[in-house]
Amino acid sequence: MENLVKTACVRETVAKRIARLPWAEIRAGLWERGLGRLGVVLTQAECEELRSLYSRAELFRSRVDMARFRFGRGEYQYFANPLPTTVAELRESLYGQLWETANEWMAALSLKGEFPDNLDAFLKRCHARGQKRPTPLLLQYRAGDYNCLHQDVYGEVVFPFQVIFCLSKPEAEFSGGELLLVEQRPRAQSVGHAVRLEQGEGVAITTRCRPVKGARGFYRSNFRHGVSEILNGRRYTLGIIFHDAA
Ligand SMILES: [Fe+2]
């Protein structure tokens, strides 16, 4: 009867894991600091599988040498459609957890536009505005590489959040290479956050700004993000950006 015994430990799908995350806390982090930590979502095996895709050129639509554009040093590649299953599943399930907060932010900042409740509908809107190229990406940094502070905006349609996953093991596989987030507060000095991510850990960050409650309603505080220099080893990252690119 042994062959009838099913594998007891079937791995939970990525979508189910995303659904179980502490979203109230993550959203509170976005409101308060422009970043919400997801905790470890991806297994070591999933991280290794995802980063192994980097050498398969046929899976990507373009490769960017960051030094060439003075974006920093290192390289990244944008996935082509169809996205790998795990990437597509992450993008869809994360969007499903973030669109309501996105709408609350738009309302707080008196900005036009309401985000639909599912990724497909949102992507249709991107496509209608000429933003048709997929934006999820894999980044590869070696010792000496870094990413300058920037915002990932690729057209008129911008989703206010993006999610970053570290695919390498800090200390064992690389050192340095912290995610940097800088909040440029109006009429005040900027605030910096350095985020050290474990392998498989994700963090949701604001793409451009966050609404901050002031004495007379909300005002807008701008953000840029980047990566500090990698001191040793190699660091792979998966970036889930929701709006497609023109
Ligand atoms: Fe970025």
Give an overview of the whole structure.
By secondary structure, the chain is α+β, with helices and mostly antiparallel strands. 24% of the residues lie in helices and 35% in strands. The chain has helices spanning 14-19, 23-33, 44-52, 85-108, 119-128, and strands at residues 35-40, 60-65, 72-73, 75-79, 137-142, 146-150, 161-166, 174-176, 179-184, 191-195, 201-206, 209-214, 217-227, 230-241. It is globular. The structure holds fe (ii) ion. Fe (ii) ion binds next to loops.
Q: Could you give the topology of this structure?
A:
Elements: H1 14-19, H2 23-33, E1 35-40, H3 44-52, E2 60-65, E3 72-73, E4 75-79, H4 85-108, H5 119-128, E5 137-142, E6 146-150, E7 161-166, E8 174-176, E9 179-184, E10 191-195, E11 201-206, E12 209-214, E13 217-227, E14 230-241
Antiparallel strand pairs: 1-11, 2-4, 3-6, 4-5, 5-14, 6-13, 7-11, 7-14, 8-14, 9-10, 9-13, 12-13
Bound molecules: fe (ii) ion.
The site of fe (ii) ion has 3 residues, from loops.
- Kindly estimate the percentage of residues that lie in beta strands according to DSSP: 25-35%
* Uncertain residue segments: 1-8
The secondary structure category is alpha+beta
How much is the average pLDDT?
Answer: 94
Q: How many strand elements?
A: 14
Biggest sheet character: 8 strands, antiparallel
Number of helices: 5
* Fraction of residues in H or I helices: 10-25%
In angstroms, what separates the terminal alpha carbons? 57 Å
Shape summary = globular
SSE ordering: HHEHEEEHHEEEEEEEEEE
Write down the Rg: 18 Å
Bound molecules: fe (ii) ion
